[in-house]
Amino acid sequence: MSRSPMAAPRSFTWTRRVFLTLLTGFVLLPVYVMVSSSLKPLEDVSSRFHWLPSNLTVRPYIDIWSTVPLAKYFVNSLIVAGAATVCSVVIAVFAAYAVSRYQFRGKRVFSVTVLSTQMFPGILFLLPLFLIYVNIGNATGIALFGSRGGLILTYLTFSLPFSIWMLIGYFDSVPRDLDEAALVDGCGPLRALFKVVVPAAVPGIVAVAVYAFMTAWGEVLFASVMTNDATRTLAVGLQGYSTQNDVYWNQIMAASLVVSVPVVAGFLLLQRYLVAGLTAGAVK
């Protein structure tokens, strides 16, 4: 059969297959090492690495809950990441809708400021936030340092600006005729937002929610400084499997796989919304 003039050359097809195969192996290799190590006794993991485990055991998946209070860390991470996600989405929806639909003094300055915050590394905010939380606690008695609420506010400082900037571009891609039609039908601005614009912007809102949740779920720097034994999150709590006498490598691998389940499951369930939300507003 003759090849179509628009068909890719055979050399390109085979090059693509080889490249994708190598890339897939490169991505899946660490996952296989984690899974195989989590199913080995500690003696096998500490000795020379073998690709095929000789002694399979699920004991590490049982011991991870008693070696460290993993369940408590899991609950803390769910509360902090969930609250930070909800706050980011709610605030970003109102802020982005206002910037996208209305003209007001300082609009350009606000947009540039929101975008410019992404230029600074997060570690620059660590010491200022620490001092602010300590001074607020000394002056008012409100314990922000070492609390879940303080950590949620901390995560909002770098997830909220990106969420606002991303939703501004998405709301700009939603036709203004929808708002005007809703206003003509008797809807107020808030009702038009929630009845018309938000349903049309679901992919963008889901993308923002996934970003905010993943950022809070795996953050280590601020969580290691802003939490204590009662409010410690999973990203910091995994360090408890490393003691002065030994490192429980098999339990670390098992715990890492367990704590990855919520993020992976959420990503797979919301993948189609996430892809649509990330590409929205790119072409107008």
Automatic annotation (TrEMBL):
Record-annotated membrane-spanning stretches: 73-97, 109-132, 152-171, 192-214, 248-270
Pfam families named in the record: BPD_transp_1
Residue ranges of every copy of the ABC transmembrane type-1 domain listed in the record: 74-270
Membrane topology reported for the UniProt record: Multi-pass membrane protein
Entry-linked InterPro entries: BP-dep_ABC_trans_perm, MetI-like, MetI-like_sf
UniProt subcellular location: Cell membrane
Keywords assigned by UniProt, alphabetized: Cell membrane, Membrane, Transmembrane, Transmembrane helix, Transport
Keyword Membrane: yes
PROSITE patterns the record matches: ABC_TM1 (PS50928)
Family indicated by similarity: Belongs to the binding-protein-dependent transport system permease family.
Protein name stated in the entry: Carbohydrate ABC transporter permease
